[in-house]
Amino acid sequence: MVARRALVLGGTGMLAGVAAALLDDGWHVVLPSRRRPGSPATNGNGRGARWVKADWTVPTALADVAREALGGPADLLVAWVHREVRASVLRAVRPLLAPDAPVVEVHGSASANPVGGCPDPILDGHPTQQVVLGYLRHAGRTRWLTHEEISSGVLEAVHRALAGKPSHVHQVGEFRPSLAGGR
Ligand SMILES: NC(=O)c1ccc[n+]([C@@H]2O[C@H](COP(=O)([O-])OP(=O)(O)OC[C@H]3O[C@@H](n4cnc5c(N)ncnc54)[C@H](OP(=O)(O)O)[C@@H]3O)[C@@H](O)[C@H]2O)c1
User: Fold this and answer.
1) What is the pLDDT of residues 73-105, one digit of tens each?
2) Run of H or E including 66
């Protein structure tokens, strides 16, 4: 049986846990990024994700290498892309997606917050779950989410996407409106 295919943008950073979980579930996972990850995500059988060298600032080239590595239409797109290049990257990879493939997009607190709201999904026709990253309060202080907390929150949205649930905005952690300088 052909494995389901997932394209994970930003999947070698804080979303590495998402890539690893998809691999564990038998997905063929493609990770475009500039630098080869030091310890690539693998599943329990040692099968790894397919990393390809690509840069968000050259979206057509990114889409070309990702298309080849996917080997067929992607059944899922998970995307953490900095807001300056978000639209161009998402539009470039749109043709790589199967017609109804869901999208899970991750936003930092500068892109999505109580003042500005959450950006509209870019890829019409693809049900989109949006994940907004916040902060955690502990002992009177706030801290960023750990990579594990981020991956766990994004995976909840992935499961919702794969269950065919309607588009939704998922908040992970709390807003800290006084700090607008995050990603
Ligand atoms: N509210 C929150 O909790 C919150 C929100 C945002 C960020 N953060 C924290 O901030 C840290 C840094 O954020 P970050 O954006 O550096 O996230 P990151 O997930 O740690 O790394 C960014 C990911 O995107 C890839 N990437 C970056 N620039 C790229 C480009 N031009 N082309 C292709 N791929 C690119 C990176 O791989 P390459 O570098 O190999 O290209 C990597 O896979 C995170 O680790 C996270 O802990 C926290």
Assistant:
1) 999 999 999 999 999 999 999 999 999 999 999
2) helix 59-70
Phi/psi for 18 (5° steps) reads -70, -45
Ligand 1 centroid from CA 2, angstroms: 30
What residue owns the CA closest to ligand 1's atom 21? 13
Q: What is the pLDDT of residue 112?
A: 73
Distance 10 CA to ligand 1 centre (A): 6
Q: How far is the CA of 13 from the centre of ligand 1 (A)?
A: 5
Which residues line the pocket of ligand 1, CB cutoff 6 A?
10-15, 33-35, 54-57, 80, 108-109, 133-135, 144-145, 147, 182-183
- The pTM of this model reads 0.92
Query: Which domains are seen in the chain, by residue range?
Result: 5-172 (3.40.50.720)
What pLDDT was estimated at residue 13? Answer: 94
Q: What letter does residue 143 receive in the DSSP assignment?
A: E
